[in-house]
Specification:
The protein is an alpha+beta fold. The chain has one domain (2-115). 47% of the residues lie in helices and 12% in strands. The protein has helices at residues 2-13, 37-50, 62-69, 73-86, 109-115; strands at residues 18-24, 92-98. Strands 1-2 form a two-stranded parallel ribbon. The chain is flat and about 40 Å long. The two termini are 19 Å apart. It comes from Lepraria neglecta.
Length: 116
């Protein structure tokens, strides 16, 4: 399945109107990896999307910044949604998450819902 996701991402990145961001959960399973877990997933998606468009970040205040530094998943998901809303309407965003089942443990389900 990961191979198919890779091919899909590559084909989507070859077009001018589409934006494809991806995350491969199975590659981020080491505990000391900064992208481990749902916080790492959403931070990775945010960094990908920030690289494809010039966003207005004026809405980020001190509280947002503090929550981001603590990797609060709900705030990070909120930031991702706000960024997506700023994308031009003529662009299509695809985000491909391979292996989300790595995070579908009972303790993570609330955060999985916030991210997805």
């Amino acid at each position: 399945m990961s191979y198919m996701c890779t091919l899909l991402v590559r084909s989507l990145r070859g077009t001018d109107s589409d934006i494809a961001v991806s995350f491969f959960c199975g590659l981020q399973t080491i505990n000391n990896d900064p992208l481990t877990g749902l916080g790492g997933l959403i931070r990775s998606l945010i960094s990908h999307i920030l690289s494809v468009h010039d966003f207005n970040l004026g809405f980020i205040d001190a509280e947002y910044e503090q929550q981001f530094q603590q990797y609060d998943v709900e705030y990070l998901a909120s930031l991702f949604r706000t960024l997506v809303e700023q994308l031009p309407r003529n662009r299509v965003l695809f985000y491909i998450i391979d292996g989300i089942s790595f995070y579908e443990k009972s303790k993570d389900m609330v955060e999985v819902d916030a991210v997805t």
